[in-house]
């Protein structure tokens, strides 16, 4: 069973990924492109070019699982990195929840009471 707690590391792939990939393909993107080891317990978030689909890869200690969300209308407000060469960005678990719920994170600012 996977639990999303405040200590969870969330890695977002800034560049679009071909979401026809499944477990092995997304694992390879996390390891080779993002230079992260999925087996260390992080959650990896991938989006397509149209920003209307997301896949999340997570290793929970016993194996990998992939979760998918496809929007019927609209797009996800995909965060942008200020560094063009950067392939990944780190998110707080709360920010991932907001992203999946449709909140625009571009320009969003966490208030002091919300930060850890």
Characterize the structure shown.
The chain is of the alpha+beta class and 116 residues long. The protein contains 2 helices and 5 strands. The chain has a 5-stranded mixed beta sheet with strand order 4-3-2-1-5. Strand 3 and strand 4 form a beta hairpin. The radius of gyration is 14 Å and the shape is globular. The model has no long low-confidence stretch (mean pLDDT 84).
Please supply descriptive tags for the structure shown above.
116 residues, alpha+beta, 2 helices, globular
Order of helices and strands: EHEEEEH
- With strands numbered from the N-terminus, the spatial order across the biggest sheet is 4-3-2-1-5
Indicate the low-confidence ranges by residue numbers: none
What is the molecular shape? globular
SS-based class: alpha+beta
Rg over alpha carbons = 14 Å
The first-to-last residue Cα distance is 25 Å
Number of E-type strands: 5
What is the percentage of strand-forming residues? 15-25%
| Biggest β-sheet strands, sense, barrel | 5 strands, mixed
Mean pLDDT across residues: 84
Helix amount, in percent?
10-25%
What is the helix tally?
Answer: 2
């Amino acid at each position: 069973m996977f639990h999303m707690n405040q200590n969870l590391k969330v890695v977002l792939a800034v560049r679009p990924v071909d979401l026809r990939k499944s477990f092995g393909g997304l694992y390879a993107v996390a390891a080779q492109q993002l230079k992260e080891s999925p087996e260390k317990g992080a959650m990896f978030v991938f989006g397509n070019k149209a920003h209307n689909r997301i896949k999340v890869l997570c290793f929970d200690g016993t194996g990998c699982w992939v979760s998918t969300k496809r929007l019927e209308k609209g797009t996800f407000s995909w965060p942008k990195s200020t560094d063009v060469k950067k392939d990944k960005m780190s998110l707080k678990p709360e920010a991932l929840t907001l992203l999946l719920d449709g909140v625009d994170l571009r320009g969003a600012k966490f208030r002091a009471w919300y930060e850890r």
